[in-house]
From TrEMBL:
Keywords: DNA-binding, Transcription, Transcription regulation. InterPro entries: HTH_LacI, Lambda_DNA-bd_dom_sf, Peripla_BP/Lac1_sug-bd_dom, Peripla_BP_I. It comes from Lentilactobacillus kosonis. It comes from the Bacteria. GO terms for molecular function: DNA-binding transcription factor activity; transcription cis-regulatory region binding. This is Transcriptional regulator KdgR, KDG operon repressor.
């Protein structure tokens, strides 16, 4: 004869063991301790542990209209900045009793819309997004209204709060610094400049500080490492002027700069590199680099 399956404890069992009402247990589970004593809260906690009670989160969400979960969309988890950004956001959310749930739009506007539709159909309490699309498309895809915060990439006409870096000013200042060090030309290594306001502002900042600028665009979807490396090396070898390679994100620094260091092309005299660094890896590759660091927390 098959063993009888033990019945899982429910909220009524917890209330009976703790000798309190179901409503009191419900308040405890929802973190509302104002209407109960510390000893009552301890008694309920002990009953939950003794019965191995696991609250039905779906039922509680339907009743309280809150999930304590925040959707976080980053543009590309292959980028160190995006992953570090999520870690910082997640840490802040957890300190307030929320859980961050990570989504990746993979630098694809249509994928971002699809992810937004999925988020809109679930019980998330809010959204933090490193956006690709404009505010109108974001709201249309999301369907329902929820609190939204924009991070990293400024959106023109955004109706939501935005947390962004002054990319124009910091890029301008960095370029001027290197111009004053004797570098006369800048090669900008970047993904499609027109695909993100962040890149546009960084490029504009560099452009405002020098007239001698060359743009090398790196396709994210169809990266041909050999072709980009050849183009970069050819540009460096055909120019007699001191050149700064300015990478608009760390991924491209780690992708293309180490080979130039290995070949002796980067000597920090005739050729050097800088860019936005989100980890310590690039600095360890070449301790003499002057980099732009970002705080994700």
């Amino acid at each position: 004869m098959a063993a009888k399956k033990s019945k899982s404890a429910n909220i009524k069992d917890v209330a009976a063991l703790a000798k309190v009402s179901v409503a009191t247990v419900s308040r405890y589970l929802n973190g509302n301790f104002g209407r109960m004593s510390a000893s009552t809260a301890d008694t309920i906690k002990e009953a939950i542990e003794k019965l191995h009670y696991i609250p039905n989160s779906t039922a509680r969400q339907m009743k309280t209209k809150t999930s304590k979960m925040i959707a976080v969309i980053v543009s590309n988890i292959d980028d160190f900045f995006s992953t570090e950004l999520f870690k910082g956001i997640s840490s802040m959310l957890e300190s307030k009793g929320y859980i961050g749930v990570l989504f990746d739009s993979d630098s694809d506007p249509e994928r971002e819309k699809s992810v937004l539709r999925s988020i809109g159909s679930q019980m998330f309490d809010g959204l933090i997004i490193q956006p690709i699309n404009n505010p109108s498309d974001i709201q249309k895809s999301l369907v329902r209204t929820m609190p939204i915060i924009i991070v990293d990439r400024e959106l023109d006409g955004s109706p939501w709060p935005q947390v962004v870096t002054d990319n124009y000013e910091v890029s301008q200042r960095a370029t001027k610094y290197f111009m004053n060090q004797g570098f006369e030309r800048v090669i900008v290594l970047t993904s499609d400049v027109n695909n993100a306001k962040t890149r546009m502002e960084r490029y504009r900042g560099i452009e405002s500080a020098t007239e001698s600028i060359e743009l090398i665009s790196v396709p994210e979807k169809s990266l041909n490492h050999a072709a980009i490396s050849e183009k970069l090396e050819a540009s460096l070898q055909t120019s007699p002027t001191n050149t700064l390679i300015f990478c608009l994100k760390e991924r491209w620094m780690l992708e293309f700069i180490p080979n130039l260091i290995f070949k002796g092309i980067i000597d920090n005299k005739k050729v050097t590199a800088t860019g936005f660094a989100d980890t310590d890896i690039t600095q360890m590759l070449e301790p003499k680099f002057k980099l732009i660091s970002q705080n994700h927390s």
